[in-house]
Amino acid sequence: MRKDTFTSRMLGALQHAEFRRLWAATAFSQSSAWALIVARAALALNETGASSAAGIVTFVAMIPSVVMSPVAGYLADRFDRRRVLAAAYGVNLAQNAVLAALVITGNLEFWQLVVLSTVNGFARATQMPAAQALLPNLVPKSKLVNAVAFHHATVQGSKLLGPLFILPVVLLGYSEWAFVISLGLYVVGFGLVLQIRTVSRGVVDRSRGAVGNLVQGLSFVYQHRLLLPLFLMVVAHCSLVMSYETLFPILSRDRLGLMEGAELYKGGNLLMIGIGAGSMVSSFSIAGLGSEKIRGRILLALGILSGVTPILMGLSFNLTTAVIAAFGVGLSQAGYMTLSSAMVQQIVPDEIRGRVIAVYSWHLQGAMASFNLVNGILADTVWLNATRILGGFGTIFTGMTALSLLNRPLRGLYSRGIGTRAAAEALAER
Question: Cα separation of 51 and 246, whole Å?
């Protein structure tokens, strides 16, 4: 009996075939995305020699969420979510194919990399709200937290899988083939998405018009006593301690002594693998958490650790210690994101889920895009480097997490979590 109970708690969502298809498609597509993030930043820095170039390509791949996410959320509630998801996958597949062809033939120019990164960003900004809005319809409500944890395990764990897939060609000195591998991963993900059969739509009041329906999701978040402070903490988390992609090649060059070419790819790749490994351990562990009180307390603890671990990574004195520290970064930050996302899904009603998740994605991706650009620009200054940036922002977020205990709804969240009754009370108080 205990074995069955443990298995059901840990792997409950994976017992449903439609969820398995979405889960696997997410794993392949996100692995492709993170392989691209690492490879593009290294390619931009290697080709131009400017830290800001790595920041620019990362920024333009993330900033479309600010523009597209509200529209994507509306689309995910207005139309069949699986079709919106498939369309986004198709656009990203085409973008991957063009980028791989240009890199392999040696015809890629920096402006083309910027344009293709932007297209990639718009497609991902559409893909993510659609996938997250579809997810609760693929499993029973009793398995929702487990499903969200597994979904985030793939999103966060892909930081390990994507760089790991391209590591062999990077180590052999054929870094350009990383873009071909990324394309192959997306082909598999696209095929899996096409096999999803569950029809899922939200509820859109056509009398409100497109703008009115878009505002409905924003209004729900901004007027909610618990969601608003939780959102603000997660935005701060993404801005201050999760916008490290731009800094990886810079940290590799300036702190770890990996100067150029394949060495830059190697450093960023191994650091992201460390992040991904910690992320997978954390997300899969959270999938088995059954106690709401424990979830709330762990969220607070992971918030503190999310600020401390980047400081340790920035202070690393060689690649080995940096990868170990990166594991801690992934462990704490993925756990924080998984728990906070699960709590959001527990509160939000299905009829506006797409729009609220879009608001969530809009805030997070916009923050990460902006701070990746900021970090790249800051790292080009004489008096700042990757170590100081990681340390400074990590310290600020640690302090913010401690101060969040002064907020009454968050304090209640940390002590009680969000059960069915707590979620109902929070909704009633908004």
Answer: 8
